[in-house]
Amino acid sequence: MFSSKTYIQRRNILRKKMKSGLLLIPGNVEIPMNYPANTYRFRQDSTFLYYFGNDVPGLFGIIDADNNEDMLFGNDFEVDDIIWMGNQPTIKALGGKSGIRKTGNLNKVQEIIKDAINKGRVIHFLPQYSAENKIMFSKLLGIKAEAVNDYKSVPFIKAVVSQRSVKSNEEIREIEKALDISYEMHTYAMFTARPGIYEREISGTIDGFTYSMGKGNSFPTILSVHGETLHNHHHGNLMKSGNLLVNDSGAESLEHYASDITRTFPVNGKFTQKQKEIYQVVLDSQLAAIDTMKPGVKYRDVHLLAAKVITAGLKNLGLMRGDVKEAVSNGAHALFFPHGLGHMLGLDVHDMEGLGENYVGYNDKIKRSTQFGLAYLRFAKELEPGFVLTVEPGIYFIPQLIDLWKSEKKHTEFINYSKVEKYKDFGGIRIEDDVLIIQNGHRVLGKAIPKLVHDVEEICT
Fold first, then answer.
1. Which are the contacts of 37, defined by CB distance < 8 A and separation ≥ 6?
2. What is the C-alpha to C-alpha distance for residues 212 and 336, in angstroms, rounded to an integer?
3. For a FRET experiment, which of 63, 67, 104, 305 has its CA 20 to 30 Å from that of 454?
4. What are 410-442's pLDDT values in tens digits?
5. CB 361, CB 378: distance < 8 Å
6. What confidence score (pLDDT) does residue 79 get?
7. CA-closest candidate to residue 261, choices 173, 164, 189, 200
């Protein structure tokens, strides 16, 4: 945890933003994987971590904006629990770590909420993604569990998003600690990959880095020779000479701040000419996108710039044709680049996505596009100092998508399908870094992980 002053200050800022009402922030509980005593690895709710810090299950936080009071609730361990789990801090002690004096058993939460309802007070809560917490809110508020999120507080969501979006110096340090782990993960994968071994032999080892150096993975590792599948969590392929390996992986620091890095490299250590050409287009688009990032720039415009660089590069290779700007405007590039350029990063790898992606990446002025590809852009708003975003363009040859568009004769004025057919077994390439927006521009976070063609081939051989 950070110092208690950090959490006190965060709650005070939130109280000023909300001005009134009772703010409910539940922590997560342990989830059984096959029987009650055998649970999945516990991961605390990120908003609870941000305002209360305590990384243990079964807690409930309340911020009273009317009475300038913070409360923490949970049940102290009894002897039967201690036999199995050892002695644990009391709720009072956990409250002290968060700078909270008023603590109590979980059953007090029901009393406080019932009293607030009887007095006609406004109760605010965020969208709940956990089935267990939806059931709990159903009991606390008398709402059907499946309808709980219909009563979410939009002002509460916007207040939390505005606060958590701007990262403090101590948060940036934590992200860079996570990136130190990413450096070890990615350089190990590059150095170790070779024909004749299975993907799992690498993915299993680099996942071990996240536990030995931090709090585990920030998301399930994507490591595959089938990079044309954007979120490929299968690690059972035997790697062969000529394969490209996409490694999209990340770690959590000890305070649960995330990293998210992607590198793509040849399994045998040398790009073919065809691979090198496509790789360089992706790299050019990423470098151009990063170079334009600064306060006041809309991230949608950064995304569209990356798309134009990709389109121009593919046109030079004969895979696309026609006017570059017009091709991008019509979405023709999305055959090869069908996702958004990046997302916010922080306590969540897709930071605050559980609160509603449109609240995080969009606002009243910038609405989400409905165009294929651009619709998947998670963040489009103007950049501000303190924002941390991923920048991850890619080029993919997805046979099913190619066949569909070709059968529909879609964007034939911009796509050379006869040449694209020759790339259907190519796979995919993605390159990703994490970037901090600063007052006069940007800073790429973490140690430099090889991504120039020469540097990638050097570490892979």
1. none
2. 37
3. 305
4. 999 999 999 999 999 999 999 999 999 999 999
5. yes
6. 79
7. 189
Distance (Å, whole) CA 350 – CA 144: 28
Residue at 223: amino acid letter:
L
Question: Could you tell me the residue ranges of all domains in the chain?
Answer: 4-164, 169-460
From residue 42, give the alpha-carbon distance in Å to each of 30, 57, 67, 126, 353. Answer: 6, 7, 33, 20, 19
Out of 3.30.499.10, 3.40.350.10, 3.30.420.240, 3.40.50.2000, which CATH number does the structure's domain 4-164 have?
3.40.350.10
CATH entry 3.30.43.10 includes domain 169-460: no
Q: How far apart are CA 366 and CA 298, in angstroms?
A: 9
- Pair of tokens at residue 62: 């309340």
4-164 and 169-460 in the same fold? no
Q: Which amino acid is at 183?
A: Y
pLDDT in tens, 293-318: 999 999 999 999 999 999 999 999 99
446 dihedral zone (left: phi>0; alpha: psi -120 to 50; beta): left
User: Per-residue pLDDT for 27 more than 90?
Assistant: yes
Q: Which two tokens stand for residue 409?
A: 């004769």
Residues paired with 391 in a beta bridge: 433
> Which pLDDT value is given to residue 49?
98
Average pLDDT, the chain: 97
Between CA 135 and CA 203 the distance in angstroms is: 36
If pLDDT is split at 50, 70 and 90, which confidence band does 398 have?
very high
Read off the pLDDT band of 87 (50, 70, 90).
confident
CA atoms within 13 A on the CB side of 1: 22
In angstroms, the CA 378 to CA 360 distance is: 8
The CA distance from 435 to 389, in Å, is 5
Q: What is the dihedral of CA 456, 457, 458, 459, to 10 degrees?
A: 60
Find where tokens 């968060």 sit. 98
User: What is the rounded CA–CA span in Å between residue 45 and residue 59?
Assistant: 10
List strand residue ranges (DSSP E) for 221-319, in order.
Answer: 222-224, 244-249, 261-266
- pTM exceeds 0.90 for this model: yes
Both structure tokens of 342: 């990046």
